[in-house]
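Researcher: Quick one. two chains, 429 residues in total.
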Amino acid sequence: MAYEDTKFEVFKQDKEDRPHEAVGTVHAPDEEIALQHARDVFARRPDCHNLWVIAEKDILKRTIQEIDQLIVNDSDAPEQTYLVCVKTGKRRAMTYVKHIGEVTANSHEAALKEALHKFNHKKNVYVWWVFPQTAVTQNDDEDIDILFTPGLQKAYRQPNQYHTVMPMRRIVHEEETA
Amino acid sequence: MDNITTQHLANKLLAMADDELILAHRDSEWTGHAPILEEDIAFANIAQDELGHANIWYELRQALTAEEPNQVVYFRDLAGYRNAQIVELPKGDWAFSMLRQYFFDMLEQVRLPTLMNSSYKPLADAATKIRAEEIYHLRHTYTWLKRLGLGTEESNRRLQNALNELWPYAAQMFVPVAGEYSLVAADIVPAPTAVEAAWREQVEPFLTSIDLTIPANWPTQRPARSEHTKHLATLLADLQEVARFDPQANW
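Model:
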C-alpha cells in the first residue's frame, strides 16, 4: 500500500444512558475518516447514540495475567484524565470491553494502576483498557439525526429471513435425483 | 391536480428516479473494488441509499401513473430512460466516482430544501425523509475530495482530469423536463435555473479551495434527457438481464 492507515478502536453507545462498548476496529488515515467508517461499519442500522474512535496505539491493553508485570515509571508528565474500560466474563461471543469510568494519572501505566485500585470491586474482570480522554474523537450531538436516525426508519432483514435455505435444498435435491 | 400537471410531475419524478437508479448502479460497481474494505462498505451503503431514493421517486410516480416501479426499471427500453448522461458514464477511477457523487450530492443539497416545501405534499414528505441521508453523503464526498485535491501530485492530477471530463456533463443535470416550468409556477418544484445557480455557487469555490482549476466553459447548449451516451445500453443490459430472463420469477 502506498500509505499507512492507522487502526482505530471503535466504541459504540447504543442509548444515552448506556455505557460505550468496544465493537471492533476500522482503518483510516485520520480521525475524521475513522469516525465516518465507524458509522458505516457499525452503526448504519443498529441503535446508536454516540461513537468514539481511538487510535489503537493510544490504548494500553492488559489482561489480568499481564498486570503482574505492570511497571509504573516515575514521570513528570502532566496529569490528565484517562478513561477506563473492562471486559468481564469469559464468554467469547457478545462480550464487549465496556467503559466504566475515569481516573487521573500522568501515564498509561499509572492510570491502569489507579484503575485497579479505584475499581477493585469489579468482579470477573479479564481485560483492562486505559486511554487518555484527549485520544477520543466522537460525533457531535447534532450529528445524531444525520448519522444514526435515518437507519432506524428502515426495515432490514437478518440473513435467515430470506427464506433461501429450503428452496436451495430443494434445488440441490432435484439436481441430485435427476 | 389537473391531468396535464400530473403528466408533467410524472416526467419530473421519472428523471429524478432514473438519476438515482443509474448512479446507484455505477456506485455499486465499486463493491469489492474500493480502495480499502471500510470504504467499500461506505460506498456500497451510499449506493444502496441512492437506490432507496430512486424507489421513493418511482413510487411517488406510481401514485400518479399506476406504473409499477419494477416494471419501469426492468422492462422499459433505453429510449424511455430520462437520467442525465453524467450518471451513466463508466465508473472511472476513484477520483472520478467521488467527484461525480459529489456533483450529485450537491444537486440534492440545493434542491431538497425547496422540495421539502413543495405544494405537492407527498413530494415534500419524501424530500424531508431523504434529506438527512444526503447530508451524510455530502460529508463523505467532501472528506474524500479534500484529501484527493490537496493530497499528492497524483491524486490532484486524477481529480483534475475527472473534473475536466465531468464538467460539461454536469451542466446537463439542470436541463428541464417537458412541462417543468408549469410545476415551478405551481410551487411543486424549484426553478432549474435557480438550482443551477445555487449549485455553481457552492461547487466552484469549493473546487478552487482544493487546488483545482474550473474548466473555462460551462455549456449552455445541452442535450435533452432523452439523449444518452453509448454507455447506457451496456449498463441497462447488465441491470435488466436477470429480470428479463424470467419475468414471472417470484422474488
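Chain B has a mean pLDDT of 95.
Researcher: Thanks, that's what I needed.
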